[in-house]
Design goal:
The protein is of the alpha+beta class. The chain folds into two domains: 208 residues, Naphthalene 1,2-dioxygenase Alpha Subunit, Chain A, domain 1 (Alpha-Beta Complex); 120 residues, 3-layer Sandwich (Rieske Iron-sulfur Protein). It contains eight helices and 16 strands.
């Protein structure tokens, strides 16, 4: 996606895109170690993820129920790219927002820290998103119309959009592979969505002080059953605190599903800082009321505690906070989801070009 002459990513004395950075994490079970701390605390690594993951994978941005009417608009910042999905007469349209930098002439210093800032220009790729916007709030002359759609929405750069059950996914790549076959296999294996779970609860947003990878790893924890051969998803089995049999799925990178026979809890993750993640929680079932959503919120918060502890440990490893860890071998990876995450991440980063593209993607090929 980039056209720079050197796509090396360096931080903490390491080449973050090199095979050596992931070598210890990709060893066999029992020998593999956790990813180096830079993967969870480095601004340079977030830039690498933007190049390798957020601009190339299918990203869950929300649900159809959030934009039921024609003209309704769902904003979602993907990495550092402000995009939205709008329901039109012809179906869903995914586009890059008109204001990618909040209308600023240059990205302000406070917006270059790896944290999503609160800003009056809510469509900026460096700011926090707002909830779905009803069509009535997008009238001519409104700030929302200008920031998201501009005066000529048909001229905005488009993105790929697909649906899976009630969920909406976007992909910012030019010609991504279709996800339909993989997602169909996942739903056949676990029955996350269908007529037996027809209704959706309201959506709540939680925020945890943990990197998105650690949070997804903790939320999807369980005994692995099967995975997609292209590292698109991992299916596992676990039990809740009340001994309810539960199936989990991690659709890399940002969707985690927790499902029982009667309900499916959807967790859509979005980095809000290097070590902070927003988790958008909703519930599908026969009657997903406030009590049921509160019960699942407790499950999410309990599972997220492991990610918060992991982020705390990663932020101090090899630093003066813990001098005994300076130069010490990284801990052995005991979580199968952590090993799967390392493989999925390394596979994607290995695909990132390490040299300039001969022809920018946005230009007409030279004769």
């Amino acid at each position: 996606m980039s056209n720079r002459p050197d796509l090396g990513y360096f931080d903490e004395g390491q080449d973050l895109a090199s095979a050596a950075f992931y070598a210890e994490a990709l060893k066999p079970p029992g020998e593999a170690r956790v990813l180096p701390p830079a993967a969870f605390r480095s601004l340079a690594f977030t830039a690498l993820e933007d190049e390798a993951v957020w601009t190339r994978d299918w990203i869950c941005v929300g649900a159809h129920e959030a934009i039921p009417g024609v003209g309704d608009l769902l904003p979602f910042t993907v990495g550092t790219h402000g995009v939205h999905v709008q329901r039109t007469e012809e179906g869903l349209k995914a586009r890059f927002n008109k204001a990618q930098h909040g209308g600023c002439r240059a990205v302000p210093l406070q917006c270059q820290t790896g944290a999503k800032t609160r800003c009056s220009f809510t469509s900026c790729g460096h700011s926090r998103d707002r909830a779905a916007i009803p069509a009535g709030e997008l009238g001519d002359g409104t700030p929302e119309m200008h920031q998201y759609l501009g005066l000529r929405p048909e001229r905005l750069l488009t993105a790929q959009v697909r649906s899976w059950g009630p969920l909406i996914f976007v992909n910012l790549d030019v010609t991504p592979e279709s996800p339909e076959a993989s997602l169909k296999a996942l739903n056949k294996a676990a029955g996350f969505f269908g007529n037996h779970k027809p209704l959706r609860s309201e959506e709540i947003w939680l925020e945890f002080p943990a990197n998105w990878k650690l949070l997804a790893q903790a939320l999807a924890a369980g005994e692995p059953i099967v995975e997609d051969e292209d590292a698109g998803w991992l299916l596992a089995r676990t039990e809740l605190s009340d001994a309810t049999d539960t199936v989990t799925a991690w659709l890399f990178p940002n969707l985690v599903l927790l499902a029982t026979d009667r309900e499916t809890c959807t967790l859509t993750l979005q980095p809000s800082a290097i070590g902070q993640t927003i988790c958008r929680v909703s519930l599908y079932g026969a009657s997903p009321d406030a009590d049921a959503l509160a019960r699942w919120r407790s499950v999410v918060e309990a599972r997220a505690a492991a990610a918060v502890a992991g982020q705390f440990a990663a932020s101090r490893w090899g630093a003066s906070f813990r001098p005994e860890t300076v130069g010490a071998p990284l801990p052995v990876q005991t979580d199968p989801h952590g090993q799967w995450m390392a493989r999925a991440l390394a596979r994607r980063i290995a695909r990132v070009p390490r040299a300039a593209l001969p022809q920018p993607l946005f230009q007409t090929p030279r004769s």
